[in-house]
Amino acid sequence: METNQSHMIRRKAILRKIFYVYTISGIIFCLSLKQSCAQTYAEKSGWKKGEKVVIFHVDDAGMSYDSNVGAIKALDYGIATSVSIMMPCPWVPDMLKYLKKHPEIDAGLHLTFNSEWEGYRWGPLTGSVGTSGLVDQESVFWNNVQDVIAHASAEEIEAELKAQLTRARKMGLSPTHLDTHMGALWAKPDFLEKYIQTGIREHIPVLFAAGHGTLLRNQLRSGPLSGLQQLAKNPENMENVLEAIRKKGEQLWNNGLAVADDLYLLSYDWEIPAGAIHSEENLKKFKTEGYKRLIKDLKPGITVVLIHCTQSSESFRNISDSGLTRKGDLLSMMDPELKQFIEKEGIRLSSWRELQQRRDALPH
């Protein structure tokens, strides 16, 4: 028969276990609640709680004539609100000619450290001396990010970054933002640091989504964003990775720069169903439906959606086999159905210029 003393001991042990369970559960709940209730960067920037702000951002302007035509058509229609230019590429003067006539366009730099196409190459503005870690055996940029990581130093990255910014300014472009071609500047912590410090020093926002990261979370294990895992001491734990990213975002915000909450860059890899006819109508419908699903699932905050709008003529097919997905982006960005859907969903289309103007109006 249980004595009063043994009963009390057992009761205390049970209570102790209950206390530990509730304490741990409470900590987990509080951490979860803290993140879910945290102000989005949209709220911090002056939008109302719950509002969804989107930048449809056109990459790769300046790469080719068809890239320029596609970017311009998309921007003129108005769903796409921002563009970035690859300063080492041959068709930059053509794109800047358009921008000079349209200074209202939100135009940044697509900082370039790769030249990925087999028969159409470009190299660094800092030069292609044989000792440079930025170039391959043909004295042009490496065709993949892994070789940039393996051969380039952070100092070479910084010098080239500055050279691309200098060329833009000499040609009359004051970039509204900076981003990174193929994710090269996200690929290694010391590359990322040069990117962030350049943005802070020049007071130019950089593409670095560091809010709730709902879409970002599912893109960190592979592809252009995978290098950001290195920011965390324990990259196997996704919450640690996201927290490390958020701290970098706070650094940017506290230094007076606009920050996005989330980022989506996978539409480039959407594949039209096997057997479907690759007509313009089918391409448009396929991409439009994809963007409608994406928009429907967006969380409140500022989301940047990367797109690649290209005219994709016969000439472009001699450069790249990516013409279908790029043409699909262009067609969807000019689709009245998508425009009406965006309006119906209450999406606020914005730009990096507006984001930074809102940030500049707040205390640093």
Automatic annotation (TrEMBL):
Segments crossing the lipid bilayer: 18-35
Gene3D superfamilies: Glycoside hydrolase/deacetylase
An example molecular function term from Gene Ontology annotations: metal ion binding
UniProt record, GO biological process: carbohydrate metabolic process
CDD domains: YdjC_TTHB029_like
Keyword Membrane tagged: yes
Entry keyword annotation includes Membrane: yes
Named cofactor requirement(s): Mg(2+)
Alphabetized SUPFAM superfamilies for the sequence: Glycoside hydrolase/deacetylase
InterPro entries: Glyco_hydro/deAcase_b/a-brl, YdjC-like
Signal sequence residues: none
Keywords: Carbohydrate metabolism, Hydrolase, Magnesium, Membrane, Metal-binding, Transmembrane, Transmembrane helix
Pfam family, one: YdjC
Protein name, as recorded: YdjC-like protein
